Structure formats: C-alpha cells, structure tokens
Amino acid sequence: MRIGLRLLLGVFLVLGMTSWVVLKVFVEEVKPGTRQAMEDTLLDAAHVFAAMAAPDLQQGRIAHGAFAQAWRELQHQPPNALIWGFRKQAVDYRVSVTDARGVVVFDSAGEWVGRDHSRWNDVYLTLRGQYGARSTLSDPQDPSSSVMHVAAPVRDGERIIGVLTVSKPTVTLRPYIERSQQRILAWSGWMLGLTLLLGLLLSWWLASSVSRLKRYAQAVADGQRVELPRLGRISGRTELNDLAQALEAMRQKLEGKAYVEQYVHSLTHELKSPLTAIQGAAELLAEDLPAADRARFSANSLHQVERLRVLVDKLLALAAVEHLQQAPDVQTLDWVALSHDTLAACALQAERAGVRLQWQGPDEAWVQADRFLLGQAMVNLLDNALAFAPEGSALEVGLQRSEGRWLWQVRDHGPGVPDYALARVFERFYSLPGPRRPSKSSGLGLCLVHEVMALHGGEVTVRNVRDGDAVRGCEATLALPVARR
Prior knowledge:
The protein has 10 helices and 14 strands.
C-alpha cells in the first residue's frame, strides 16, 4: 500500500473516531443541558409565583382571589412571540397550589383541585423544607409526554403553609433541541469534510514529495542525468528538503568517485598503446640508425604524441560536458546559420580528404540550444564522417523537419558500421579504423555528441544506409525539438 494512501487512511481513522466521540458526547449533552436550563427557570418562576400566591392562600381565597384571577386572564392574552424562528402563542406553564397537607387547592388547568399530591416528590420534599422536583409522563404510553414539575414553599412568615408547583411539558423544548442537534451535525459534517480535505492535501503533498525523491534516486541509480526535484514552497526548510539536499550531495560524491575510478581505468588502458610506441621509438632512436629509419621513427613518435594530445583534449571536453546537469547557455538559435558556420570550419579538412561537402536544407530552423556545445557535436559528427568517407565521394549534410523535431543528418558513402559495432558506437574509447585512419581514434567524439544531445533533451542515432543487402554508407542524425522564434 502506498504511503499516501496509508496516511490518508490513518488521518481518516483518527479523525473519524475523534469526531464520533466528540459528536456523540456533544449531541447527547444538548438535551440534558436544555432540561437543566429549563429546571433552573422553573425554579425561579416557582419562587416568584409562591410569593405572589402567599396572601391569597393565607386568607383562604386562593381559588378565587387576585392570583387566580390573574391566571384566568392570562389564558386570554397569548404572547404571540417569535423566538429564534419558532412562534410561541400560549403560556406553557401550569401552576398548582397545595395546602399544608398536600391537597391541591388551586390548579391553573382546573383538573387537580382536591387531589392529594402529598406523596409526589415536589410537594413531599418541599413541605419538609427541601428542594422538590419531579418528572412524570402525562401519558404512560408516550415517552415524549414527560412533564417537569418544580415546587417552591408558600410561607406565612417562617411557617410553610403550602406548596406552589410550576409544571411545563418538556416537549416544548423539542424544536430547539432538534434544531441545535441538526446544526451541530451540519457544522460537524462541514468541519469533518474540510479536515478530510486538508488531510488529503497533506497526504498528497507528502506522498508526492517522497515519490519525486524516489524517482530521482532511481534515475541516479540507473545512471541517468537528472536534476534534483524541486519540492516547492510548501516544503520550505523541512526534513524533506534536507533529505533532497543530502541525496544530491551523496550523488555528487558517489558520481565523482565512480567517475574518477572509471576514467583512471579507461585512460590507463588507452595510454598504454601510444606510450609503448613512443618508448619503442625512443629506444631505437638511441641506436645508430640509418637516416630513413630515424626519420620514420621520429615521425611515428610525433604521431603518437599528437594522438595523446587529442585524447587529453577530448577527455577534458567530455569531462566538462558529463558533469553538467543541463546546457549552460541555452538560447533560441537558427540551426541553418550554425550549420553553414560549421561546414565552413570543416571545409579545409574535407578538401584535404578529397571529399565534397553538400548541403541541403531550409532557409531557417529554430531550436533551443547552447550554440557552442551544439557546434561541438556537429563538428565531431563531421570529423567522424570525413574519416570514413572514401576519397572523391560526397558527404551529404542536410536539415529537415519531422513530427515536431528538426533532424540534422550527415551521410557518407563509406563502408558503414559493422553490425556488431552499431550498439557500441557511443561508448567511451570505442572506435574503429577508417580508410585514412588505420589506427583507432580516441573513441570520444561520438560519446561527446551523445552527452551534448542528452543535455538538450535531444537524440543522436547512427544507422547504415542499405541498398538491399549491400551497405551504401552510414547516416548520423541529430534531433532537437522545434522552437518558436
């Protein structure tokens, strides 16, 4: 399972469990909290009403006195109020008064007068100087018919002469409770969705950063030329950014060590042949030789020295290119104009080889490239082609457009490349003898071309041109994407 999916599932699990616990506790506390607030309000009202009813109860006219008259008039004066979106059109309080024995002597609903309530907790406890309250179902078959009763003592001085109970159905609170619960659930749902979205973004960011570092490490392990991935502003100076820098530093050190080891081994192997030839010529020149032999051995020594110089120069050029991650001076340039300059620079070499340079191409061809490096690649291809082109033949150089790319092609009419060597022509130090080059070259020219094209995101290919089963020469192609001027 991918790390991003694991992180997302982990965030979802933790967040889901936390949200479920919080919502469960919060929602379940809405109803008890509302009932507690209701009980507190009923208690205040009971004490106020008890003080108002005390004079009538003391004088024995509680059933038809001013207190009773006020309650009867109240039934004809509905509040008609809009409370938080709910219309209230009646007073929900029910008030009952008992005497000191617990017998109901006044009931605002007119149903309980004469009943003995002395055993109900609200009356029983209040008559004994304690706090009395109870909840009772008005309909035993309906759990939602609960009514809350809160009592207060009616006093004559310090003596308790009765109990006033204020009752209110809890069902009147249901709209407020349900709406509160719905709002809590709705807001919780939005918060849960937002948090999950943030978790998804966090998981995506972390997984994406790790994946980019993974692809970078794999590409480096495969020997590819890749840039250190940019993790973006979100990463900042985090551990991921530090990890990327550490990977880049490790890559540079490992590549540097491997590069030196490989070059030392290859260079040692390539230097053996010319050094052996120079040593042999020097030993012979120390002897008394005829003038013709002395001249021949001296010329051979100079040839080997020149070979060493070319080898060192191309090694330095190749080393400079191989350590680049991208072309240093990329610009939009006309490949046709650069081609004319390159052909002019190689004209003398072609004349000495007895080879004609033939150009065919458009008036202009714009590409994104480093002028110097691309010119070096073209010179190396021409130099390699001139070494294999037969004297008196033509070297065809052309430029054409194909599928969004410009193709710069060089074709000679020589013997071509042996099939066994086609897959190795871009290897470092691999070369073949040519018609005018009986000894091998440095084997670095085509390798340099390959590195330059890789820096530009282009491609170089070499193939034999066939006429049936016969090889009629070799064609090398440089390909770069078309650029807008």
